[in-house]
Automatic annotation (TrEMBL):
Domain of life: Bacteria
Annotated protein name in UniProt: Peptidase
Stretch list, region Disordered: 1-22
InterPro entries referenced in this protein's UniProt entry, alphabetically: Clp_N_dom_sf
Protein's organism: Streptomyces yunnanensis
Amino acid sequence: MQNRTAYSGGDRSAQEDPDSQLTVELASVVSAARRRATRDGDHQVDTAHLLHGLLEWDPAVREVFDGGQQVARLLGYLVQRSIGYGLQWHGTVEDSGAVPMVTEGGVPGWSPAAAAAMDGALDRAHARYATRAGCLDLLAALVDDPESRAVEVLRRAAVDTARLAARLDGDQQPVPD
């Protein structure tokens, strides 16, 4: 299993084209997160940008939330990011403390927490012998960092992140609205 690959810089071939290790859907999510960060005037893609992209682009991610009111609440918080909720994040680097703060040699344009989540998604994919990480891999990696902006948004939308993590790890019970 490869460890710390495309987004933190461990594997040279992955560094040259890190998106080659992502499914088409996840590559679309990453592109959407990059566009959203640029449009919002943020200097880095953070975990909330990634969560927003996942919810918009992947039906399987929305199904994990049982599709209903939770998805609407989540999207509501995420859409309000640039006009209210989340303004405290504007111009700051997301460093959840889950990984050491990257000061030099980090991933340009990515917060340390977002880069760690992408690495976590790749690790999950490799653990099941998949060559590409998918959207649910990224969602699970986002939920694994309890101090990330994505988890803050999930909690504000009344998502039980422990139950969500269990569901993503194989529990088949839907996360209630």
